[in-house]
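Encode chain A's predicted structure.
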Amino acid sequence: MLSKFESQFLKQKCDKHYHGYHEYYNYVLGNTTIKSLLEIGVAWGDSLKAWKAIWPDATIEALDLHRQYDLNLEEQFKIYNIDSTNKESSKLVSSTYDMVVDDGNHNWKIQLETFNLYFDKAKKFYVIEDVMGIRSLDLLLKYLPKDVRDDTHIFESRGHKRVFNVDGYSEVDSYRIMFIDKR
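Encoded structure for chain A:
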């Protein structure tokens, strides 16, 4: 039987399924109730629809620099069109959320900047998706506070390996997903 995450990620054709992230969301979150969620990085909006199906009563907001999604999504979700590393962006969104999911820019430096602006807005979980290979993971972990590192669960994508070029270093590896448990 499919978990609620696998079922909805498949139904919405969400890349979270392709990467195998449904397994990790199910493992870490299980039956956790999420009443409010901020997703950074919308793309076509597939994951917003999946989150809403998983937690129909949740308030879901998002931000993305680019409008690739169908504008009808703006009728269902509050979407801020701004760069997540813009300091003003963190002032536009709500004060806190049960979960913040960073599925925006996959460069580790941008992920770190976004973390620094949005980590305090997450009450239960802060998730960083699509960490590009072991080098990016090592660099992110190096700059995260120790108490945050201690509460971090890291999983490797089930998708195919690819070439990542990180700060002049090239590697063939998989994406990773990081769950920071703040409970």
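The chain has one domain: 4-181.
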